[in-house]
Amino acid sequence: MRALPLISIAALAFTATMGTAQAAESTYGQGDFFTRAGLAKVSPKDDNGDYDSLGVDKVDVKDGRGFAITFGYRFLDNWGVELLAAQRFKHDFNLDGDKGGSVKHLPPTLTLQYYPLGGTDSVVQPYVGAGVNYTRFSAESVDIEGASLEMKNSWGWAGQLGVDFLINEHWAVNAAAWYLDIDSNVTARAGGESYKTHLDIDPVVIMSGISYRF
User: In a 3-state reduction of DSSP, which class is residue 6?
Assistant: First the structure.
């Protein structure tokens, strides 16, 4: 089920590129600087880990939502780079089904992108990308009296699918999805003791919004 948003975007892009629609203003390719902005949903995978030392069998990190923006450059018609930035996303987490606390994270992601229709005037411009993600965790809190939580920052790989639907020379409607390899070594402290575990978050990020080419 987690793969459905990615499959849907890929199918949409593939179907649309079979048409012969053309943009009225200019080609889409080398030398373009661009920004994309919109709302994003971050959906971690189910069952992110456990805390057996605390008697917790299942840790689940819940979805987060917020504003995201990207900045990119097309150095060739078919190739470009893009940096994903965002406000901090807040995630609640459950411990064995009960609310356990919350954490915020900031996930800047840099991808190298391939545009199969780059350099043409097609109004539909799909792309794929791969790169690296750095995630910084902050504002960790746990709903257990006298307990605290610390999550280590994460480095991991990233994959991306997206499509621009061109409106004119500068503006487009955009939809994109990322898979982010995010994991963290976690330390909980309670009753004067420290307990360690490893959480795999590995979210799918879905963003929809607008794009502007300079």
Answer: helix
Q: What is the domain-level CATH number for residue 85?
A: 2.40.160.20
CA distance 28 to 208: 20
Whole-number Å distance between alpha carbons of 172 and 30: 17
Positive or negative torsion for Cα 126, 128, 134, 139: positive
Contact call for residues 59 and 93 (beta carbons, < 8 A) = yes
Place of tokens 């987060």: 64
pTM across the whole model: 0.81
Closest CA to 195 of 135, 136, 144, 134: 144
Reply yes or no on whether the pLDDT at 1 is more than 70.
no
User: In which residue are the tokens 């987690």 written?
Assistant: 2
The strand pair at 64-74 and 33-43 is best described as antiparallel
Per-residue model confidence as pLDDT tens digits over 149-159: 899 999 999 99
Residue 171 to residue 186: CA distance in whole angstroms: 43
Give the pLDDT confidence of 102-145 residue by residue, as tens digits. Answer: 999 999 999 999 999 999 989 999 999 999 999 999 988 888 77
The answer to whether 3 and 10 have CB atoms below 8 angstroms apart is: no
Per the structure, the complete domain to which residue 160 belongs is given by 4-213
Tally of domains in the chain? 1
**Confidence at residue 16, expressed as pLDDT on a 0 to 100 scale:** 46
Q: CB atoms < 10 A from the CB of 152, how many?
A: 14
| Distance from C-alpha of 214 to C-alpha of 208, rounded to nearest angstrom | 20
What DSSP string describes 170-206?
SEEEEEEEEEE--EEEEEEEETTEEEEEEEE---EEE
